[in-house]
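Troubleshooting: if your tokenizer reports a length mismatch, compare your output against this known-good record of 258 residues.
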Amino acid sequence: MLAMKNRLFPLVCIVIIGTCTQLFSQDKVLAPSKDVSIKLKSGIIIKGTFWEPKDPSKHTLVLLHGLGSNRGEWKDFAERVNRLGFGVFTYDSRGHGESTLDDDGNKIDYTTFPKWGKKTPWNLMVDDLDEILVYLENLEGCDKNKFILGGASLGANVALTCASRKKNIAGLILLSPGLDYAGVTTEYPMRFCKVKPIFIAAAQGDVYAYTSSQKLVSFKPNKKHITEAYLPTNEHGVTMFRSGLDADLFDWLTQKIK
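Known-good structure output:
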């Protein structure tokens, strides 16, 4: 079953057991991962990991981490999704993880980024994602019309903003988005985003992300293609998987993505 608003923990446990058993009985073979380096126009070297789609009819998920984190936060989820046949690409955003150098060897550190302004490194992460998608279009098994963008925390804001500029994104996953993270705002991107379906989730105890998520949904007059999941916890981003959100997301991927 798909995620419901304000779920109770007993229901979460049932979903985990029933859904995961069904999904992972289908195919347990994991595609080999490949570490890649992408040189952006800015000179920044983006480091990422790619799991090729095992099924050519399946989509490829492009997953963005939160502020101060790295692509490793998505690794377990990425491997499980790949076992279902989906392709997956995770990467370290500029100034994070291994993406901390440009082609001249200059150090890039997110802790030194200015917090506000339209052309801050935070907002330029959206342009980075644009370039990364162009790179992925040329990889084996990737179809430019079958990309699903997903992000946690700041990564959700970046994914949403990028998706709002494009016509060929096949789905959007927003975990703990905010109306404004580090100057990357989401009201207008959500209002003008044409992507469907959308999966949006937050924990009720994570008040800013929770209220932001509800506000973002309210900007869409037609909510038919939006799946909302609000957990009775205080977790943020991918840590919501500990409470069973991953099972809801697997359901959404297998039932809503065509």
